[in-house]
Amino acid sequence: MDSQALTIELDDEQFEAVLGDNLLSSLLSQGADVRYGCRAGACGACRLYDASNCESILSCQTTVASSMSLTQQTLAESSTFSVLSNVSLNDDSIELVLLGPSDDSFGDRVFVSLPFKETGEEANFEHAHFYECMALNPAGAPLKLVLQKAELNEKDWLRALALSAEDQVAVQLSTGVRKGRLLFEMDIADAPVVVISSPGNTMFESYWREALLDFTPNFVGHFTLFDNTDLTLSLADDALIAFLQEALTSSGGTSLQLIYHGQSVSAKDWAMLLRPLRVHLNQLHFVR
Ligand code: FES
Q: What's the rounded mean pLDDT across residues 34-55?
């Protein structure tokens, strides 16, 4: 086996890899801060971009064949959007509706930055941090996003709370990707569907319900995984199994489709849970 040492540059950091390594495993084993989810090529969470040719790769599906220069940043252009509304959903999350030049719709990923601003001053986005969010609006409607306290630094969370109509935020839109394809690509038209969320994604339930109504009259239900650091135990919880059994019964033998909105549970763990229920992994769709 060739043990040639290669260099992986990821944004401003350098990592080593050996020819034939799995790229994601190699980065994680060296403490790289990279996103991932299913580790099976299904959820897209581990997408990285080749800095030399701008092509995207799924790191969990990539075998290291040469040194690489990669970035986690999507190629994006930044535009200024006006706030149409800012509604508190609970103590830890707000819904923003934004007006600007976007053709993003449900499931697309956009990046939002909050302005530094003193009273009476122009919004200033210099050095501002961009937060990744999922577009929740239907096609053609103003961009709708949820910002969560847990994902923002303290100052940005206070800035987000203070936003009011006609304030401005900066939005980076992904370029070169097909927009609004998430539900089409799951191929769930008219199928019975359940959504299973990680604890941090519970507040998206009503958005899923609304978006799925356009695709299927068979939205069977929503389940939130327990906030448990032992994900295998969390998955095996009796309440989840009972929920799935009931959903399978009510879907009457038609192939039940499962959408997992989270990143922590791997495809392997899902397969262990779903096998005894006779649910195949191709009925499970990952959304980060
Ligand atoms: S596609 Fe790579 S982690 Fe899901």
A: 79
